Amino acid sequence: MSTAAANRQFFDAISETYDTKPFFVKVNQEVTDDLRNRLDWIGIPFTNTGSPSDVDSVRQLDYACGTGLMTRVFGPYVTQTLGIDVSPNMVAVYNARARAAGLPPSAIYATVGDLFDKENPSPNGAEWDGFDLVTSSFAFHHFEDVVHAARCLKDHLRPGGVLLINDFLEGGDLKADDDGKPIEGTEGTWAHRHHHGHGKRDEQHHHDRAEAGHEHSREPGTMAASIVAKGASFTIEGVKKFFAQAGLVDVDVVTMGKRVYLEMGGQKLWRTILFARGRRPVEGKFEL
Ligand SMILES: C[S@@+](CC[C@H](N)C(=O)[O-])C[C@H]1O[C@@H](n2cnc3c(N)ncnc32)[C@H](O)[C@@H]1O
Fold first, then answer.
1. Among 34, 41, 164, 167, which has the minimal tally of Cβ within 10 Å of its Cβ?
2. How many CA atoms lie within 13 Å of 39's alpha carbon, on the beta-carbon side?
């Protein structure tokens, strides 16, 4: 089974309850608050922020949108958001929530697709190009080849547009006790990697591919696992490196000021979230 197919199967099965647990609601709120306080850092003009740099039209692509965290974060400051996810059930929840909120498909709409499929990337067409902002939240640790992923997403930006991702910082975990309280002195990388429907054969397969040089993304800190990999994490330098390899410029990576509490795969952890941004170069700008 391909990585994308494993992801589809896994997220199809959990779409209804994916982000409804109280701790998840809290994490999503913390991410929302943090990002809305960093609009300047993201580095594109938005709409409706009250700033003199505001513009009339801002188009966002929310890639691996799931139920739409990044769509909700930026909803007030963009004019249109399109979503893409490999899981039909996640897409169904995404669209149902937008309609329930009274938002028309012309403003918010997601479809099933996989831009990273090397034989048959989808969706296609002009409406899926030229975005001002491409977001991808808690998703890069699920992608098989992060350089390819970042490059594909860059190609869907307008020149000067920005790719923004978030994920977990390697070494940024603290263990929690049964009550969810952080256990001091347990700093490290504690989240298990979960392999859904995969076994040693796939590990070996990916090891072989990495050995054969087919995967740039297996260097330490740039990609912790290649199958549906809950818990994988990235170093700041690793993200900077694969963003640069993908051809992004003006790259910066920051971490959220405080850890967030998560329960994943039977573990209770306080984890550090990182945000990374990189810009599609404006052709010719640096040749003057
Ligand atoms: C952990 S969820 C994150 C969902 C959402 N972005 C959020 O922050 O809540 C990861 C999402 O990535 C999607 N996904 C995984 N691989 C993908 C791919 N190659 N193309 C599109 N979506 C993918 C999954 O279906 C899932 O909805």
1. 41
2. 19
pLDDT at 198: 38
Digit-coded pLDDT (tens) for 72-104: 999 999 999 999 999 999 999 999 999 999 999
- Site to probe by mutation for ligand 1, drawn from 17, 25, 86 as the one with most ligand atoms within 8 Å of Cβ, is 86
- In angstroms, the Cα distances linking 123 to 63, 129, 135 are 11, 10, 16
CA of 138 to the centre of ligand 1 (A): 7
- Ligand 1 pocket check: which of 65, 233, 264, 274 to mutate, most ligand atoms within 8 Å of Cβ? 65
CATH number of 3-280: 1.10.3720.10, 3.40.50.150, 1.10.10.10, 3.40.1280.10? 3.40.50.150
